[in-house]
């Protein structure tokens, strides 16, 4: 997997340098280059206009102090299932709107917190944590062998689980 990411990184660098080399000949004005674009770093494509936290610790802190539930998405860049879910998630207007009510974190690595992998370390998996910092093991997808897995076809289930996470929080805290 490591070689694979080095290879993709190398190819990316080659592509960038080719693109830059091509642009050298063209004269560009300030107006065409200076378009404010949101950095894609923390969203990793899951919703560029949403506010994403950087670390699990930061996310827990923010959830507790803002009294908003936390939604954690575990995924991998080279996983086709993660990519498909990301696309469905990012293109779903209602999910993107509802996601604003959450503290959001997407991780491409595993945390040491065993609570975040109650039934294994598979991707993609989405867990909800309420502001009392309790992992909501009761909010699950439709697979009994991978409780927190979602596929693009499960996007409406994910949406209703997001609503459930918000509702449970209000009634129980």
Automatic annotation (TrEMBL):
It is found in: Endoplasmic reticulum; Secreted. Keywords: Endoplasmic reticulum, Secreted, Signal. It holds the Pfam family Thioredoxin_7. It comes from Rostratula benghalensis (greater painted-snipe). One of its GO terms (molecular function) is dystroglycan binding. The gene is Agr2. Belongs to the AGR family. GO terms for cellular component: endoplasmic reticulum; extracellular region. Residues 1-21 form the signal peptide. This is AGR2 protein.
